Amino acid sequence: MGIKFGIIGHGFMGHEHETMLTQFDGIDVTAICDIDPEQVKDVKEGIKRYTNPKELIGDSDVEVVLIAANNNQHLDLVKMAAKAGKDIICEKPLALNLADLDEMVRVVEECGVKFTVHQQRRFDPDYRTAKAVFDSGTLGDIYTVQSGLYGYNGNMHDWHVFMDQGGGMLYDWGVHLIDQMLYMIPGKIKSVFADVRNVINKEVDDYFKIILRFENGITGEIELGTYFLRDCDKWFERHWFVGGNQGSAYIDGFDPEGKIVRTTQLLTNVGGARTMTAAGPTRSFGPPREGLIVTEPLPEVHTKHEDFFTNYVKAYHGEEEFLVKIPQTRRVLALMEAARESAKTMKSIDFES
Known about the structure:
17 strands
């Protein structure tokens, strides 16, 4: 018999969880709840259906509550589940602010239940490819890591367009993109500078650019735009750039493509010599001579979102640690608050220095 899961919230992510977990070895989905009766009509046969979260949480046939409800409902549902003695997985963003998160942690610790966050995008192949390049040291001393995600529609859907329900892109994708960057680059962050805007949407953010200056000298750059247009292949997907003093790497697309790029020779003595290119006299810009730029394949990675639950089952049984720890989640949320403050004041914010 697997761990008995109850899912609260049967929208897009709730359906995704049902599809994955009903086929997952070591987990049994026993109950699903949504406050909208229409949303539970298509729950698979053999799974209990609820329209009241209290009833699902009170079900003795549920051991772990997976919360996939609207962001503004997370606090109450986490506390309710913890007080009922249920272990908890909560969708991101875990909380809308640090005060709510700290309240969750207080109750969870008092009740002694297991508690983690569904940060499945730590297993995205594009991210894992970039991280593998970073970890390998093949680029020498890294000075920049850039992450971008761009869209063409501009608008959001359903409750995501309302700020009081936890809408907007910083709460939606920003949590993932920041978590990926912090899980890749070690060390403290000295400063945060951010631009957060409403380009198409009236109430919630749909563009942000966040610049992180790490104590180790690396600059992390995260950019997302829902209306950020270009007519090239795989533009409306993920983009990574990792730059070091021995080469660079670019990784494009959720199903990543790209290369490691190096030069065969560096100019060691500029003297006073002039090099003419199609762009004019230059030593670094314009078309490189043939053979100067060489490429290598990216490392192969084989990860998938299900790996989050593989870790969860093992950690639940004490075989390893939970991958996503609450202090990591708190750091992400603190950085998000710093980003909003920076965008509001148009100033850099000191962080962990």
